[in-house]
Specification:
Blueprint lengths: L1 E2 L2 E2 L2 E2 L3 E2 L8 H9 L3 H12 L4 E2 L9 H8 L4 E2 L5
Parallel strand pairs: 5-6
Antiparallel strand pairs: 1-4, 2-3
Length: 82
């Protein structure tokens, strides 16, 4: 899995998750959210004044990761699963 983000012309770092890795909410927070999207989201909020997170709503993005984003003040666009 590869994760990346953009906001206007600003691009995040790319996060690579090893093949066949089981991505539950805790792993998603530790390997994807903490190193890349959370700091990137804050950078975009500061630079543009507004940002929203859009994900594919896969099972690994649920429960703890939703709560983690809420703790960081990250607004999320709700989409149907996958």
């Amino acid at each position: 899995m590869i994760w990346g983000a953009f906001c206007g012309p600003t691009k995040s770092q790319i996060v690579y998750v090893p093949g066949r890795a089981k991505i539950d909410a805790a792993t998603y927070i530790r390997t994807v959210l903490e190193p890349a999207p959370v700091p990137f989201w804050h950078q975009c909020r500061e630079e543009y004044g507004w940002a929203i997170v859009q994900e594919d709503n896969a099972p690994g993005h649920k429960w703890y990761s939703n709560r983690y984003r809420a703790l960081n003040g990250m607004e999320t666009l709700e989409l149907p699963a996958q």
